[in-house]
Amino acid sequence: MNIESLLIHGGIEGDKRTGAVNIPIYQTSTYKQSEFGKHADYEYSRTGNPTREAVEKLISDIEGGTRGFAFASGLAAITAVLTLFKSGDKILITNNLYGGTFRVLDKVFKNFGINYDIIDNFDSIENHIDKNTKAIFIESPTNPLLDVVDIKKVSEKAKKHGLLTIVDNTFMTPYFQNPISLGSDIVVHSGTKYLGGHSDLVAGLVVVNDDELGERIHFIQNATGGILQPFDSFLLIRGIKTLSVRMDRHEENAVYIANKLSSNKSINKVYYPGLESHPGHLIQKSQARGFGGVITFRLNEDVDYIKFINNLDLITFGESLGGVESLLCHPATMTHAALPVDLRNRLGITERLIRLSVGIENKEDILKDVENALIIAIKKVGE
Predict the structure, then answer these.
(1) Residues near 54 by beta carbon (within 8 Å), at least 6 away in sequence
(2) HSE on the CB side for 49, CA within 13 Å?
(3) Rounded distance, CA 202 to CA 217, Å?
(4) Among 306, 298, 316, 328, which residue's Cα sits nearest to residue 377?
(5) Do the bridges between strand 267-271 and strand 327-329 make them parallel or antiparallel, or are there none, so unpaired?
(6) How many Cα atoms are found within 13 Å in the side-chain-facing hemisphere of 144?
C-alpha cells in the first residue's frame, strides 16, 4: 500500500471477534491464564497489551521496520534506546539536539559512564570515532536550527565502523521520511507531536530494523516498564490515521509563511529546509518527501522579543509542536534551556531565536498574527 493507505490500514486493523472497525481499548492490567504451565498470548499489560500492540505494529509498518515499541513519552523511548549501551561507551550526537535528549545524556546516562561527543560537521565524523564509540544519534532536520543531516551517508559511515545509527524522526514523521530505508538501525519518535497531532497525549515510539535489536528493546521495555497506556495507544492510532492530510496542510502553510517571513524587514534570518536558500535543501529533497511544518527565525535587534511573544493572538505560546494549532516557543528558555549557555550561544540559540510549529489554520491568519505582533514589538527610538 501507499503511505496514505498504510496510515489507515496498517498494523492490526479492527477487532476480529466483534468486527469493530477500531481497535478496542483493552483497559486491563492482567489476563486470565487458561492452564498452569502454558503461557497465554497476554499475561500482564506491562509485557503486552492488545491496544498497545496495535500501535506498535502500525508504527513498524509505516516506518518500514521489523518491530515497533510504544512508550509513555518520547524521552522514555529515547531512554530505552540509550539503555542498550554500557559504561565506557560513547555516542556521537548532532550539535543542536532537542534539549531533553541532551539533558538525559548529560545529566543521567553520563552518571553511568555513557559518554557523548558533539559533532558540528558530519563530513568529518571519522575524526570523532574511537574504540569506545558505539552509536551515532542524529535528528534531521535538527531541533531547533533545522540543519539537514545526510542520513544515508552517516548510516554508511556508521556501518563501516560497526556503529548503530539512531534517528529521531519526530519533525518529519514516517509520512515524509523513512530513515530505515536510508540505512539507519533505530528510529525514535515523540508521538506527542505530529503522530498524535492534537496536543492531547504524551507518547514515544521506537522502531528497529532487525529482530535481534527488537528482542533487546522489548526486554528493556518490559524490564523498565515505561509503557504507553491503552487509552493513549488508542488516541495515537486515531491520530496517525489523519497524518497524511495534516502533514500536507502543515507543510503547505509552512512553505508559504517561510517565504513571506524571509522578506520581512523585522526578521534577520529564516531557517526552513523548504527554502531553496537553505544549505540542506537539496539533501532534504533527496532523502525525504517533504519539508515539514516547523520554521525557526531570528528577530532583528530592533524587535522586543518578549513583546512580540506576548502580543500573539491566534498562535499559542507554549512547549511542544506538531499539533493542529500553531505553537510558538522560545528555545533558549524552553526546549533548549538544558544546553550549556556557551554551547547555545555558539550555535545561535539566543534570546532572539523563535521556533514556530505551523498549524493547519488558514495560512493568512497565521501570517497576519506574526506580522501584527512584529509591528507592535518594534522598539521606538530611545527605548
Answers:
(1) 11, 12, 23, 233, 237
(2) 28
(3) 20
(4) 306
(5) unpaired
(6) 33
Give the integer Cα–Cα distance in Å for 101 and 336.
10
Amino acid letter, residue 86 = K
H/E stretch holding 80: helix 74-82
Question: Can you tell me the distance from the alpha carbon of 372 to that of 254, in angstroms, rounded to the nearest whole number?
Answer: 18
pLDDT tens digits for range 343-372: 999 999 999 999 999 999 999 999 999 999
Residue 381 in this model has a pLDDT that exceeds 80 = no
In order of their start, the domains of the chain are 3-241 (3.40.640.10), 244-377 (3.90.1150.10)
Query: Cell 538501525, residue?
Result: 185
Q: Span 116-120, mean pLDDT?
A: 94
Is residue 270's pLDDT more than 80? yes
Nearest to 191 by CA among 93, 99, 58: 58
> Which residues are catalytically annotated?
46, 98, 168, 193
Grid coordinates of 28? 486491563
List pLDDT tens digits, range 74-111: 999 999 999 999 999 999 999 989 999 999 999 999 99
The whole-angstrom separation of Cα 127 and Cα 256 is 40
pLDDT in tens, 237-267: 999 999 999 999 999 999 999 999 999 999 9
pLDDT surpassing 60 at residue 30: yes
